[in-house]
Amino acid sequence: MKKIGWLAGIVIIFLGFQALAQGVTLPTFQLGFKTADRPDDVVNTIKVVLILTVLTLAPAIIIMMTSFTRLIVVFSFLRNALGTQQMPPNQLLVGLALFLTVFIMSPALNDINQKALQPFLANKMTQAQAFDEAMAPLRKFMFHQTRDEDLSLFVQLSRMEKPKVRSEVPSLVLIPAFVISELKTAFQIGFIIFLPFLVIDMVVASVLMAMGMMMLPPVVVSMPFKIMLFVLVDGWGLIVGSLVKSFG
Q: What are the helix (H) ranges across 66-159?
């Protein structure tokens, strides 16, 4: 390992000298505290800090404001119903849920790109206007998936006046109502998924009890039958297709 480290250091130094010999300007990085001469310097520093903060919260934003919540909860229910422990692994389920999220959210992402990102990059709108335009497709998606009773619950908890139209509902009220609705829908789908596998477990347990094989765990015998049933009915196609269609 030490030889590899020394070799990497020599290569970096060699490339640096070669770049200097060719007249290539190498960037420098300085970190420190000094007195700001202009207020703009302080504002730009605050903007950088805010951008870094948003980047750290990006995974939570993706989970809370998209279809990812319903997908990953249903996949977890499916794995528990099959009784396969860690198969498929968590990384695979999360990756599949992310790709399906991009697929489901593609209309909203296209609207954000056309109505918010591109005009902002072209200096045709301010940051506040771009943020409002970017939130509009996400709010439309969340409103379509949020139950009225969940939305009413958080409107009451916020102690705000009852909004007359949906545009008056703030995002801080809409997002938790959307998450609660997604969890409720995911648990309903998970219950339906559990039923056929539960029947198999009960049948296998009854057969083993009748045969006097009480020391053999029923899960060991029922798991191959559950996997075989899931493969024969094209379970992944049915699950994924039903999930995508459930978002309309």
A: 68-82, 90-104, 106-112, 118-121, 127-145, 148-157
Q: Do residues 223 and 201 touch, judged by C-beta distance below 8 A? A: no
Cα separation, 48 vs 28, whole angstroms: 18
Tokens for 128, please give them.
């506040």
> Tokens 């009480």 sit at which residue?
214
> 1-50, pLDDT tens digit by residue?
444 444 444 444 444 444 444 544 545 444 455 555 555 555 566 766 77
Contacts of residue 203, defined as CB under 8 A and 6 or more positions apart, other chains included, come to none
The CA distance from 145 to 185, in Å, is 9
Q: Of 184, 110, 185, which is closest to residue 140 (Cα–Cα)? A: 110
pTM, two decimal places = 0.69
**Displacement of CA 18 from its chain's centroid (Å):** 44
CB neighbours of residue 197 within 10 Å: 20
Q: How far apart are CA 204 and CA 192, in angstroms?
A: 20
| Per-residue tokens: 63 | 């989970």
- Please tell me whether the peptide bond between 163 and the residue prior to it is cis, using omega within 30 degrees of 0: no
